[in-house]
Design brief:
With 367 residues, the protein is α+β, with helices and mostly antiparallel strands. Helices cover 40% and strands 17% of the residues. It has eleven helices and ten strands. The strands form two sheets. It has a seven-stranded antiparallel sheet. A three-stranded antiparallel sheet has the order 8-9-10.
């Protein structure tokens, strides 16, 4: 196999953080740690590779990788079993009519995932999932998304391997380019969803939500079309020290979407949607309180960033919210827990703590 020099984004390069004992115990307790028949390290040993191009002939920066026939037969069985684990709780009765059509390797980003393409031989319907190198940051991001957002996340870990379901939707940059001004979509619904997504990211401290790191899920409703913005990259969960890194509205890659939304929402309405999202998160916190508490306790004891970044972010949030408890935080887990505690207190006492409404940033504020 030829080793690659991965192409990296121009963001702060985040190291991969290993799964420590406390996190492994959490994953085992809540059914996330399973024996996977194929590991990430095994897939690294391909024999040949070729660039993968999209339908327009553009290089996707993915490689399609090829293994020896013997190894591919072995992988095929295991990869279909992992797909069954993600989709049907491990029921193998249907996998005989499935086949592994292609394995792609991503040459950019933090996790360098393998994308597994599964095809149903009866109707040629295709589906995907990912095999990645397990990173504690990403796993905490997936769990927080599972517990605090409207979305359920399906994934399993095994030692240093992460198997993760594909998140279906239109990539944000494609949505901005081809769908943003569609007459089929209501402008105010796009704007509302961006405000809510922005608030979700900021409260749980999920960073780097540039347009190519989230998707837009479009769902026909009985009267109209609904939209939801979902993250698909969780590697930058509470790593960076810059406050605006956790607010999608401040990325210049999102400018066209942000300016579109501020054009269609006034300040009072955006504040309403922010408060609505805060209330939804608080209800989810209450429903899953024991599991969330276990997760936050694990986060507190896990290294997820540098002391300098922890101090920078905690000081910024203390000033932003006028909430002095942030100054006592010693880890990123402390900061996330304090931010959720601040939110809970504001909801309980009916004292909204929205220090800044959703607005378009100026050029000197861009991330």
């Amino acid at each position: 196999m030829s080793e690659l020099s991965p192409l990296r984004r121009a963001t702060d390069k985040k190291p991969s953080y290993p799964i420590q004992e406390d996190l492994r115990d959490y994953l085992t307790q809540f059914g996330r740690e399973k024996v996977l028949p194929v590991r990430y390290s095994q897939l690294r040993h391909w024999e040949e590779s070729m660039p993968l191009y999209d339908k327009n002939g553009e290089d996707t920066l993915w490689l399609t990788v090829v293994y020896s026939p013997e190894k591919m037969r072995e992988f095929s069985i295991g990869l279909k079993k992992i797909y069954a684990m993600l989709k049907t709780d491990g029921d193998l009765s249907f996998i005989e009519h499935l086949y592994v059509d292609r394995i792609d390797f991503c040459t950019f980003g933090n996790s360098n995932p393998f994308r597994i393409r599964i095809v149903n031989s009866h109707n040629e319907n295709q589906d995907y999932y990912y095999i990645k190198k397990a990173d504690a940051s990403r796993i905490f991001g997936l769990e927080l998304e599972h517990l605090l957002s409207p979305n359920r996340m399906h994934y399993f870990t095994y030692h240093n391997t992460l198997a993760e379901e594909h998140i279906v939707g239109i990539p944000g940059d494609v949505f901005i380019d081809k769908w943003l001004n569609s007459k089929r979509l209501k402008s105010v619904r796009i704007a509302k969803e961006l405000v809510k997504f922005n608030e979700r990211c900021f409260i749980r401290l999920l960073g780097d939500m540039r347009a190519y790191n989230f998707i837009v899920d479009i769902t026909p409703d009985f009267e109209d079309i609904q939209l939801m913005i979902r993250p698909m990259d969780f590697d930058q969960q509470c790593y960076n020290g810059r406050l605006n890194f956790y607010r999608p509205q401040f990325f210049k890659e999102n400018n066209e979407l942000v300016f579109f939304c501020t054009k269609h929402l006034n300040i009072a309405t955006s504040l309403q949607y922010q408060r609505e999202e805060q209330s939804h998160i608080y209800r989810r916190m209450s429903l899953g309180s024991k599991r969330l508490e276990a997760l936050l306790n694990t986060m507190r004891s896990t290294d997820l960033s540098t002391p300098e970044k922890v101090n920078q972010l905690s000081s910024s949030l203390a000033e932003f919210y006028k909430f002095k408890a942030f100054n006592n935080c010693r880890s990123m887990g402390d900061i996330v827990a304090t931010n959720l505690d601040r939110l809970a207190k504001s909801i309980k006492h009916s004292q909204p703590q929205i220090s800044a409404p959703f607005t378009a940033p100026s050029a000197d504020q861009w991330e």
